[in-house]
Amino acid sequence: MKKAYTKDEAKELIARKAKESDKPVKYSIVYIKRVIRYYIRLMSWLYQMGKNTSTRYLLESLKRCGEEKISTKQLETYRKYYDGDLKTLEAKVQEIKESEIRDLNDILKCSSKMNVQQYLDLVDSSSRAGENNLFDKKGRSKTDTKVNLYYVQKTICTFYSKRALSARERRKEARNLIKDTLSKFYSVIDPDFDSSTKEMDTELLNKIFTDENVDRIADIIFLKINYFELQEVEEYVLYDWIERRIEKVITFRFIEDVFLDNKAKMQAAQKAKMLAAQKEKYSLPAKPSSGGLLFILKNPTK
Q1: What stretch of H or E contains 134?
Q2: In this structure, are residues 253 and 122 in contact, taking their beta carbons and an 8 Å threshold?
Q3: Residue 297: pLDDT above 50?
Q4: HSE-up of residue 278 (Cα within 13 Å, Cβ side)
Q5: Is the sign of the CA dihedral 154, 118, 258, 189 positive or negative?
Q6: In degrees, to the nearest 5, what angle opens at C-alpha 48 toward C-alphas 47 and 50?
Q7: pLDDT single digits (tens) 221-276
Q8: Listed residue (20, 26, 33, 36) closest to 224, CA to CA
Q9: Of 98 and 195, which is predicted with more confidence?
């Protein structure tokens, strides 16, 4: 793939192309930047949710088992960071919860600015989580009145933090989707970037997605999808993929659909494996006992 344009080259090309072409643009630079920053915020929130789970579980374990029965590592953490004081730990967990909701609110504001529908009216804000589905499958609103944004946000945080609701698997599915997306965006200015060996945590996000890099990425994407006919196969595939992630922004509902679909496939595969094992077990011919063989030898057929 060709070397990425520098910041100045991209700006110069945009100015020239705007004068030469009267073709309407698909997506503005401002919109593309908003999409990139939305994905950055979402990835950062997912990473933080995972990081916070150990603190939540520490409090749960202490309340359920007491200091005597928690693991040595948990006890060390409890004494080192919270001075062995339950109230200090409870205050920290409360602080974490408020921070998660605040960051989620920023994410939802970003999507709202882009007119991206998150289907918050379909979120089960009544805490009925028996089906372990964040959204109603049939598209029926689970809120009878106007959406209470705080309780909807609280519900989303619960589904992404509670172990009993497969939060770890849900976060993993979401991280894979967003990590892949951000990696593709970043490869616009660094074609050799390999995300497979890196954990896309907050530190890496801040390092590679600086304001200057986000501006440059947005400028190049703007040029490629609005003004250029892409000739190289590799380049065409990349920008076609990026354009789809701009056109159809990944939402919480999309993540939930992918998570549930993959979960169903995994369960079906496990069931098929079990049935195959049972079938093989019962289809094997039964081995005659030694007593049966002795009886046959003593009573040969005439």
Answers
A1: none
A2: yes
A3: no
A4: 6
A5: negative
A6: 70
A7: 999 999 887 778 999 999 999 999 999 999 999 999 999 999 999 989 988 888 88
A8: 26
A9: 98
CA dihedral 36, 39, 44, 48 (to 10 degrees): 170
User: How many angstroms separate the CA atoms of 175 and 152, rounded?
Assistant: 21
Q: Is the separation of the CB atoms in 239 and 25 below 8 Å?
A: no
Adjacent-strand bridge partners of 135: 123
* Per-residue tokens: 164: 């009993």
pLDDT at 8 over 70: yes
CA atoms of 192 and 107, how far apart (whole Å): 29
Sign of the CA dihedral with 219 first, then 223, 226, and 232 last: negative
pLDDT score of 142: 54
SS3 state at 14: helix
Using H for helix, E for strand and C for coil, what is the string for 76-94? HHHHHHHCCCHHHHHHHHH
Q: How open is the CA angle 147-172-202, to the nearest 5 degrees? A: 85
Cα gap 274→126, rounded to integer Å: 36
* Cα gap 294→291, rounded to integer Å: 5
Cα separation, 131 vs 204, whole angstroms: 36
302 has pLDDT over 50? no
Instruction: Write the pLDDT tens digit of every residue in 183-196.
Output: 999 999 999 898 88
What residues contact residue 70 under an 8 Å CB cut-off, 6+ apart? 58, 61, 62, 78
Contact at 8 Å (CB) between 160 and 51? Answer: no
CA distances from 216 to 10, 130, 195, 222 (A): 7, 46, 20, 10
Task: Note the pLDDT tens digit of each residue in 106-152.
Answer: 999 999 999 999 999 998 755 455 578 898 766 666 555 578 899 89
Q: How many helices and strands, by DSSP H and E, does the chain display?
A: 11, 0
